[in-house]
Amino acid sequence: MNTVTSPEVQAMASHISSLGISPYRIASAIAYVINEPEDTGVNEIVIRPTLQP
Q1: φ, ψ for residue 19 (rounded to 5)?
Q2: Which pLDDT tens digit goes with each residue over 10-28?
Q3: Per-residue DSSP letter, 20
Q4: How are the residues of the chain apportioned to helix, strand and coil, as percentages rounded to the nearest 5?
Q5: For the chain, first and last CA: distance in Å?
Q6: Cα separation of 11 and 8, whole Å?
Q7: Whose CB has fewer CB within 10 Å in the chain, the N or C terminal residue?
Q8: Dihedral angle over CA of 28, 24, 11, 53, nearest 10
């Protein structure tokens, strides 16, 4: 249900949501880390879209 009535705000929200990362890409990054050998330490994962608003 869309409760935003302002066309400007709707356009802005639509643009921002188009910059999001798909769940498949997030899962792929996590799977990569999980499949690393036990002697490999992954301390941090940073995932961000390549496009910025």
Answers
A1: -90, -5
A2: 888 777 777 778 889 899 9
A3: P
A4: 45, 0, 55
A5: 25
A6: 5
A7: N
A8: 10
Closest by CA to 20, choosing from 44, 48, 43, is 48
Structure tokens at 36: 């690393």
Q: pTM of the full predicted structure?
A: 0.56
Six token digits for residue 5: 């009535």
Burial of 46 (0-12, 13-18, 19+ CB in 10 A): exposed
* 2 CB neighbour count, 10 Å cutoff: 6
Residue 3 CA to residue 33 CA, distance in Å, equals 39
Cα–Cα dist 41/5, whole Å: 48
